[in-house]
Design a protein that fits this description.
156 residues; alpha/beta; single chain; five-stranded mixed sheet; 5 strands; 24% helix
Length: 156
């Protein structure tokens, strides 16, 4: 099984934006040899040096993202797909941070649609269930089976 590093991104003080840190807690509670969760919170750029020093085979970035889907929806996307998606907890776009690594590391973003936003430390039931499902999928090494994000485009 490939070595997978999971950057868990988000703000744990902003309700469903905290899905990344919640996923980190879930994955860290039962360590697995093939899976290394990293609690990036709101500053994934702070982990670039570590990524450069010890590049994994696969880097997954787990974060809340407004994709216009029902709360708790999980989608996999490429770095190129992240350009039109709102990731609110960090200022530097993921595609800009990770572009230099694209050729040497398999990179995917795993996005969870938030249901509730605003101040608070508790995830909505939909987001909490998404974290549980995502944890199971990542532990089993089946992240490739996640549904891919399809941007909603109006017909022309």
């Amino acid at each position: 099984m490939k070595k997978i590093v999971v950057w868990c991104v988000g703000n744990p003080l902003m309700r469903d934006d905290g899905v990344g840190p919640a996923l980190f807690s879930e994955l860290a509670s039962e360590p697995m040899e093939h899976l290394e969760p990293v609690d990036c919170e709101t500053t994934p750029e702070n982990w670039i040096a570590r990524l450069r020093q010890s590049p994994p085979e696969v880097l997954l970035v787990a974060d809340a993202a407004d994709m216009g889907l029902p709360g708790g929806s999980i989608r996999k996307m490429s770095l190129a797909d992240t350009g039109n998606i709102s990731f609110s907890s960090h200022g530097i776009p993921l595609s800009l941070i990770l572009e230099p690594f694209r050729k040497e590391i398999e990179i995917a973003v795993i996005a969870v649609q938030p249901l509730e936003r605003g101040f608070g430390e508790e995830l909505s039931p939909a987001a909490a269930e998404a974290v549980r499902r995502l944890s199971q999928i990542l532990r089993s090494g089946r992240f490739e089976e996640l549904e891919c994000y399809q941007e909603k485009r109006s017909p022309r």
